[in-house]
Amino acid sequence: MGTKREIINFWMIKFYENGIIRDYTMFKKDARNLFEQLKTDKGIKFETVLAGINIYRYTRNTKKPIIQFDKLQLDSLLMSYQQLQEVQKKIKTKKHKSKSKEHRCNTCLISFSSQKDVNNHQNTDKKHYFKQLYFSNSNVLENASRDIFIEINKGSGWIREVLPLNSAMKTTSHILIRNTTRNIYRLDGITEINSYIESVAIVTKYLPIFLMPNAEVILEIVACIPEALTTLFVNVFSFTNTTNNSQLHLIKEIALQVTNETYKDLLPTSQYKKQVAKRNNINIRKCVKVGVPTPIFNYVIDLEKYSVPKSLENLLAHDLQLFDGITKGEHKYLEKIQGTLKINESGHYLNRNNYFHLLDLLIHMEEYQLSIDIRNYDTETKDLIKVKGYNDRFQLAVPELAERRPSLLPGDSVFVKGADTNTFQGVVRMISQDTVILEFNKQFSRSVYMSGINLDVT
Fold first, then answer.
1. Does the domain made of 4-93 have the CATH classification 3.40.50?
2. Helicase MOV-10 helical domain spans which residues (predicted)?
3. Residue 320 contacts by C-beta under 8 Å, 6 or more apart in sequence?
4. Could you tell me the pTM of the whole model?
5. Distance of CA 268 to CAs 154, 271, 274, Å?
6. Tally of CA atoms within 13 A in the half-sphere of 292 that contains its CB
């Protein structure tokens, strides 16, 4: 059954559950009778159990000997037992709930106690019926009607419209229903099918509502949403043509765009416009570098760049597609590249034989794309301003810097050239929202820079 201590604790709890232990005391005879009645292991004796119990006092001078327990031991044992009972109760409750969740309407995400209730819900609930049609894009819910228009902004004609709201502020808006036919339509009901926010509703004081020919009805939308979010508020409007009793169900999607001050602060200050890149023709290989004066002699051997191979550069310029004038060597190289890029597709796997070729290709492709993207920063400027307290640092304005890709990083190089000057390297030292601080060789400040000078920047 267990260790000696576990056996003793087991019988202590049995005595407690059956009312043998009361007020830290127990009659020995009652305990023995219960022990003989419940024990299943004949090898265990009552005296063994009794000897292992921490007894505070054992009184014999009565007709029924009384055992008085140590309070600390008994309280500790019973507390552990009660905690165990609570845990088991929670587990049992959780299992019971999980079983009930098996009977579930997956369309409405509602749980029922039995499958019969699920079937009844699916057969009779109008909201379930419309949800099923909506999520399956059924034609029963007409997406548009030339006869009846449901609009927030008159004349919009859109199925989905945006309704801007302020968070934590009660807002009343209007929705317009227009009947452009010669028939009388009756609005029988409005069924909300997918809003998860209780604090928005279309207010109808009474139903049905009759729409006379070429008439309009205005309903209110009342909302008070506490947090900033964007969600869809979808409703199905059910109409009956009173002339022939035909049914018409129209769907209306309202995108609730709820904002607050924090949300507005994060919006861009101006609309993003991609700049038309100015390609400056600057030789960046021969420039005056930061902290290095102009050499009095030319370098015999210049440090080479890890350049993209010319053959690959030509193929990348044509998006790795066949083009007029492609050579046999380029065609063969293109097929090899396309095969390398198919690694990880069906039947192609990365291994030690192709790993180097794939990695080499990806690095060159990334380098090529960066060389194109970075030229979006090319510009002609007069806005190079000397930073106070520095002879070699200048501030350069870069409009919409935060919106551009790739991002400029501290340590990147910017090259500046005047009309009749050498090319100077500037190293990015600090970046703000729309400006960068550049450090130049001190020779730039002494011999080239003057306020308002026209410079090419790349």
1. no
2. 303-376
3. 334, 337, 338, 341
4. 0.42
5. 29, 7, 14
6. 12
156-164 long-range Cβ contacts below 8 angstroms, 24+ apart: 159/251, 159/252, 159/253, 160/232, 160/253, 160/254, 160/255, 161/253, 161/254, 161/255, 162/254, 162/255, 162/257, 163/221, 163/223, 163/233, 163/254, 163/255, 163/256, 163/257, 164/257, 164/259
> What pLDDT digit, counting tens, does each position of 226-261 carry?
887 888 888 888 899 888 988 888 888 888 888 887
393 or 43: which leads in pLDDT? 393
> 1 and 42 in contact (C-beta within 8 Å)?
no
Q: Which two tokens stand for residue 334?
A: 């293109």
First to last CA, the chain: 83
**Contact 103/111 with Cβ under 8 angstroms?**
yes
Element (H, E) at 368: helix 355-373
| CATH class for the region spanning 139-264 | mainly beta
DSSP secondary structure of 41-103: -TT--HHHHHHHS-EEEEE-SSSS-EEEE-HHHHHHHHHHHHHHHHHHHHHHHHHHHHHHTTS
Quickly state the pLDDT bin for 452 (edges 50, 70, 90). low
- The predicted pLDDT at position 23 comes to 73
Confidence of residue 56 (pLDDT cuts 50, 70, 90): very low
pLDDT at 287 over 60: yes
64-109 pLDDT tens trace: 677 777 666 677 667 766 766 776 677 777 666 555 457 888 878 7
Check if the beta carbon of residue 170 is closer than 8 Å to that of residue 223: yes
